[in-house]
Design a protein that fits this description.
- By secondary structure, the chain is an alpha/beta fold.
- The chain has a single domain, classed as Aldolase class I (TIM Barrel).
- The chain has helices spanning about 25-35, 45-60, 80-100, 155-175, 190, 195-215, 225-230, 240-245, 275-285, 300-310, 330-340, 370-385, 430-445, and strands at about 65-70, 105-110, 120-125, 130, 235, 250, 255-260, 265, 290-295, 320, 350, 360, 365, 395.
- The strands form four sheets. The chain has an eight-stranded parallel β-barrel, surrounded by five helices. Strands 3-4 form a two-stranded antiparallel ribbon.
- Helix 1 runs parallel beside helix 4 (about 155-175), helix 3 (about 80-100) packs parallel to helix 13 and helix 12 packs parallel to helix 13.
- The protein is globular, with a radius of gyration of 21 Å.
- The two termini are about 40 Å apart.
- It binds phosphoenolpyruvate and cobalt (II) ion (CO).
- Cobalt (II) ion (CO) binds near residues 70, 355, 397, 426 and 427.
């Protein structure tokens, strides 16, 4: 990027992968024009707070938990669904913080995660070849050609649902729900009786005791806001560049550009081309940003990405999200860690143990094995230990619901069980128990 030449529209001069074909360009332009006048969803100061928190992760003093849906949905949007997703992330964060003694930076894949990159432009649905489903921001998952038409009105609906979701998240995290005196109440009934649930109850008991101890020592725990509220940030893959451009605003305080659609946005594995439109757009916004890295990423490519997205080497500005697959993490990751360290770039390294481990089961469902997910995380920690870098965090797809989408875990979900509660519109997610189990396993790795 030529810094002087960058503008929220300069990405348009570059090839943009994975953009929908909108049937009516006039309508698209009207919608985007309207969106430019809508209020920002997040504020520049909040994005800067997240950069500062991630800076602590980059320097090895905190851990990142980024989690949520593969794709958020328009049709299952309720206050309870937002609360439940928040709740499981808070539970995981409590386990991680309590066990490791380190602050956990919490970022949801939420309030904007509506657009999906696809490996092919069409997909087979029953007897039909249909345009691929690209997320509710673009089209519908239904099995007809009409459902699959890209509809610009969906961009607006995504904006409004994000706004309502953020409103709930802000009330929940600042208005009492996230209060540390309520850690017990986050354990859902169906999880409580399980082994993971009982383990969580123990942690919750110990936190209660610690709070009572502080009080008994004369600490006025009621007046400590950090015990009663928490910072929770939003993120999504910034795929549809027209939407992101329309929500990009100049911060009055600093004069810098921020994408107000989320606190953190990331570039997906399929859109991280050095000369592509996504890289150009991301280079000019000041939000903390992420970039996925699959097993084909080379050390040179990764150092170029660091240079491009974080030329000023600000700790916390750039999170590299490795999604290598359990088989390849041990060979593919260390050269990247070494190259970034040698180049002196401060980054957050996060492990996405989901997207390199997806396969279609014999029964025909897209799934992932819980064991592969744990194996990739263990490989990620081992690679960092070998190179001498900090395993900064994990990035997972989950729901608090009792779904059957990933194989294994304590309930030993089998291929034959997948059909019973397979509810995702896109990738298979960890359920509530698997998520909590994963948090305990990561906590064990962190303690070592
Ligand atoms: C995702 O995070 O849902 C995703 C599509 O990931 P990736 O770009 O790593 O394939
Ligand atoms: Co996914």
């Amino acid at each position: 990027m030529d810094a002087a030449a960058w503008s929220p529209t300069s990405w348009r001069e570059y090839p943009a992968a994975q953009q929908p074909e909108w049937p009516d360009d006039g309508e698209l332009q009207r919608v985007l024009k309207h969106m430019e006048d809508l209020p920002p969803l997040v504020f520049a100061g909040e994005a800067r707070d997240l950069t500062a928190e991630l800076g602590e992760v980059a320097e090895g003093r905190a851990f990142l938990l980024q989690a949520g849906d593969c794709a958020e949905a328009f049709d299952t949007f309720t206050a309870d669904s937002v609360r439940d997703r928040l709740r499981v992330i808070l539970q995981m964060a409590v386990v991680l913080t309590y066990s490791s003694g380190l602050p956990t930076v919490k970022i949801g894949r939420i309030a904007g995660q509506f657009a999906k990159p696809r490996s092919a432009p069409t997909e087979r649905v029953g007897e039909l070849d249909l345009a691929s489903f690209r997320g509710h921001m673009v089209n519908d998952v239904g099995g007809t050609a009409e459902a699959r038409l890209a509809d610009p009105q969906r961009l607006l609906r995504a904006y409004h649902q994000s706004s309502a979701t953020l409103n709930l998240l802000r009330s929940f995290t600042k208005g009492g729900f996230a209060d540390l005196t309520r850690v017990h109440s986050w354990n859902q009934a169906f999880v409580r009786s399980s082994r993971e649930g009982r383990r969580y109850e123990q942690v919750a008991d110990e936190i209660d005791r610690a709070l009572r101890f502080m009080k008994a020592c004369g600490v006025d725990t009621r007046s400590q806001p950090m015990l009663h509220e928490t910072n929770f940030f939003t993120s999504h893959e910034a795929l549809i560049l027209g939407y992101e451009e329309a929500l990009t605003r100049r911060d009055a305080l600093t004069g810098d550009w921020y994408d107000s659609s989320a606190h953190l946005v990331w570039i997906g594995e399929r859109t991280r081309q050095a000369a592509g439109a996504h890289m150009e757009f991301f280079a000019g916004i000041r939000n903390p940003v992420g970039c996925k890295l699959g097993p084909t990423a080379t050390p040179d490519e990764v150092v170029t990405i660091c240079q491009r997205l974080n030329p000023d080497r600000v700790p916390g500005r750039l999170t590299l999200i490795a999604r290598m697959g359990a088989e390849r993490v041990a060979t593919a990751l260390p050269p990247l860690l070494g190259a970034v360290a040698d180049a002196g770039h401060p980054v957050v390294w996060a492990c996405d143990p989901m997207h390199g481990n997806t396969f279609t089961s014999a029964g025909g469902r897209k799934t992932r094995r819980f064991d592969d997910i744990l194996r990739e995380i263990a490989g990620f920690f081992a690679a960092h230990e070998a190179v001498g870098t900090w395993p900064g965090g994990v990035h997972v797809e989950l729901t608090s619901d009792d779904v059957t989408e990933c194989l294994g875990g304590a309930e030993e979900i089998l291929d034959a069980d997948l059909a019973s509660r397979y509810e995702t519109m896109c990738d298979p997610r960890l359920n509530g128990r698997q998520s909590l189990d994963l948090a305990f396993r990561v906590a064990e790795l962190l303690r070592r």
